[in-house]
Write a structure and sequence with these properties.
The protein is mostly helical and 287 residues long. It is built from seven helices and two strands, in the order ααααββααα. α6 packs antiparallel against α7.
Length: 287
């Protein structure tokens, strides 16, 4: 049991640290964020909520060997809904927004700047009358009422599956466009930079969508293959926590690559402009 607690804490703490690091990097960014990076920034919030509550609330309860009856019901309900309800469903919704953002950029590049000015104003979550609570002994989120367990698991599974599949279908459409797109009126250097940026954002979105599918597959199918506590812990709690750590790592990596590519592009522009100035000066000297 102690080993399970340590593994869960380390995984969730790493996830918390990575997502906070992504958030701070976005905050320090001097240039205005594009629509895609605004969504990435917003996605760090549910990741931080889930990782922090697991590391600093759920794990200490299990370490103290408390039972469900020892935890105040209101506190348990509130924190469990933040982890297993609001934040869990908000992640896939944001993934669809990220995929659609890439779709608009690829298929409607000239209209993208106009669409990018629009603000995201409303995000709504439909709540059912089945609520989750955390069981410190099994380290798993469970429905408060047993009769709700089956219907709630089915509803959440279908919801996340639908959202993830929708985002992946959009990603396939984007991939087709990237493979067949002809960028007329652009120089070779501009085409290469544009495609490199689009491919990078596409790969990031695709990986994050796959992580969501892996998580729901582990929880709904793999965890039920073997009826052992360690197996259930690995493919329920540990997998759930690891997904948000990996999600933060993916955003951190691609944001770092984006900054490096932008810096290289700026250096190339500076060298090109300085070369043009030298040519002009040389011509004036000859004349």
């Amino acid at each position: 049991m102690l080993l399970f607690i340590i593994l869960l804490f380390l995984t969730s703490f790493v996830g918390f640290s990575l997502n906070v690091s992504v958030l701070l990097r976005f905050e320090k960014r001097s240039r205005p964020l594009s629509g895609f990076y605004k969504l990435c920034l917003f996605k760090t919030f549910p990741n931080i909520i889930i990782s922090s509550l697991i590391a600093f609330w759920a794990v200490p309860l299990s370490f103290l060997q408390l039972e469900i009856s020892d935890i105040p019901t209101v506190q348990n309900l509130m924190f469990s809904q933040l982890v297993g309800g609001f934040s869990y469903t908000l992640g896939p919704l944001l993934q669809i927004c990220m995929a659609l953002n890439r779709l608009v950029l690829i298929y409607f590049p000239f209209s993208y700047k106009k669409l990018d000015r629009l603000k995201i104003t409303n995000l709504s979550i439909i709540a059912s009358n089945c609520y989750l609570i955390y069981n410190p002994q099994s380290l798993v989120l469970l429905p408060q009422r047993k009769q709700c367990a089956h219907s709630q698991n089915l509803f959440i599974f279908l919801l996340i599956l639908t959202l993830s599949l929708t985002a992946n279908i959009v990603n396939v459409i984007i991939a087709i466009r990237l493979l067949t797109n002809k960028d007329y009126g652009l120089s070779n250097a501009q085409i290469i930079r544009r495609r490199r940026k689009c491919v990078s954002m596409f790969v990031q979105t695709a990986i994050q969508d796959i992580l969501q599918l892996v998580d729901i597959t582990n929880y709904n199918f793999i965890s039920k293959i073997i009826d052992e506590p360690w197996w259930e812990f690995t493919f329920c709690s540990l997998s759930f926590s690891a997904v948000y750590a990996l999600d933060g790592a993916v955003m951190l990596y691609f944001h770092k690559c984006s900054n490096e590519a932008r810096n290289q592009e700026q250096n190339v522009r500076v060298s090109e402009s300085s070369g043009t100035v030298r040519k002009v000066q040389f011509r004036n000297f000859v004349m």
